[in-house]
Amino acid sequence: MSEAIKLSPLSSAEVDEFLAIARKEVAEGTFDGSDSQRIQRLVECLGDPRGMVRLGFADTLGKIGKAATPFLVTALLNHQDPVVRRASAKTLTLIADPDSVSPLVQALLNDEDTVVKGSSVGALARIGEAAVPLLLDILASGEHPESTKGHAAWALAFIGTEAKEYLYREINSDSEAVRAAVVGAIAKIAQDSGEATALGLLINALEDHSETVRCEAAAVIGNLAYKPAVSRLIPLLEHPEGETRKSAALSLMKIKDTEAMAALEKALEKEAENSIATVIKLAISQ
Fold it and tell me: pTM for this one?
């Protein structure tokens, strides 16, 4: 990680000239990636009050690439200005350097600024497979809030097929939160590729011992409108846990397979909870 050098402030005109020269050199391939002071100055300018100027510096740093990573990481973790921390995370998204995974996770877990957190998880998602183990660790831990776990689950789903090896293994994780997140990520693989293995794992997840995982599986199968799952969803209409019955009904409603009509009508006759009966009626009407 780079050590910060004390830099004197620039006027707006000097900032504009500095950016123009750096952009020209980067475009021509003459920018000196070993010039630490100059790269740090580029990073410091990510705090410029003008949005388009910040965007210009981010784009330039993104094109410089891996040589800028240590300076962006230092700013992400230590800079007092949240604008610079936000822009550093967004610029790391452009570079997608696997070496930035650990500090990005640190920012996600510890930064007080919600935009920094969101930008950090966006960078992790863009980096892809190298970020997957730490994202799974976040989900498995009991120390992190649901908002952070939600970020991690989103990143896993975004990574999708690139994380397939991990996801197919972790569908059997001891952690309910991991299994639920993995179901959502596998659904993205199924949506993008129609892969039989992914679809089979989603169907099997309907029988998970966790209601959260069962409901997530039913929801994504409904969103996929996957008709071969109907025969596995129908028995869930009689499940002892109400949320599972409701999720099964909603999934069948989205799939719209007439094979489920008789089972839905039978379930409606037996249903004792008004809120779930309402959902079943809606499924029948659809």
Answer: 0.86
